[in-house]
Amino acid sequence: MVRASDQAFNQSGELSDYNLFSTHSALVAACAREGATAQHAALIARCYAPQSP
What we know:
Layout: E1 18-19, H1 25-33, H2 40-46, E2 48-49
Antiparallel strand pairs: 1-2
């Protein structure tokens, strides 16, 4: 008999100190190709997942 559990063992840890925009090379390249280079710094700032207290 299989018993249901509220624990999930296949989940990764919390994203902290990780920039979702700058680590996605295809997204960075697409923004540059489409002329969003002026917003590059703003995109990096908005997509940063700071460490939780």
